[in-house]
Amino acid sequence: MVLRCLGSGNHPAYLTSVSDSSRDSPAGSLEHWLGEPAGESRLESETLVKAMFAPYGSKEDLLGHLHRLLDELEAKQQQLRVIFGEYLAGEDPFPERVHVNVVCYRLIWDYTRTAASWAAWAIDEVQRWPDVTAPAERHKLMKIIEAALAADGAPAKETPEAPAVSGLIAAQ
């Protein structure tokens, strides 16, 4: 597989081409690539990285990043609504792909909805803080984690800090 950058700036475009000199047709290369295991999924968010380093900045900067993320996600949801409207009206551009498109769009929709919900919650949470330099009351923060686990049906357990998390925090 070859990945070539076609642009520059904040959002460069990439062209992926599946090629292997031992294959004699593009269809054969694609078929081979589709049969290979997929790489690990990733969550990429510069806003999340900036939130992790917020104690070195300001509360206003963090809130600005969170508001921009929420605006971005709401715009993506609006774009998806337009696309879904085309599908529901029978005007989708690739009706022969409706089965795979709907499966993929469902994940994108759920992700944007969940991320927008998180961004709105994070804005509300950060607004309650006096600043970003020190943690709020620890017991309230642990209640947030317990509620997240309970919402998923997982029992909240009292466990010592995980070494990977402890090491990451210590490194900061």
SSE blueprint:
Layout: E1 2-5, E2 14-17, H1 26-35, H2 46-52, H3 59-88, H4 98-128, H5 138-151, H6 163-171
Helix pairs in contact: 3-4
Structure explained in plain terms:
The chain is mainly alpha-helical. The protein has 2 domains: 34 residues, no CATH class; 112 residues, no CATH class. Helices cover 59% and strands 5% of the residues. The protein has 6 helices and 2 strands. Strands 1-2 form a two-stranded antiparallel sheet. Helix 3 packs antiparallel against helix 4. 4% of the residues are buried.
Summary, kept brief:
The chain is mainly alpha-helical and 172 residues long. The protein is built from six helices and two strands; from the N terminus they run E-E-H-H-H-H-H-H. The two termini are 36 Å apart.
Secondary-structure-based class equals mainly alpha
How much helix is in the residues? 55-70%
Categorize the overall geometry.
elongated
**Amino- and carboxy-terminal Cα gap:** 36 Å
What tags apply to this protein structure?
single chain; 172 residues; mainly alpha; two-stranded antiparallel ribbon; disordered C terminus
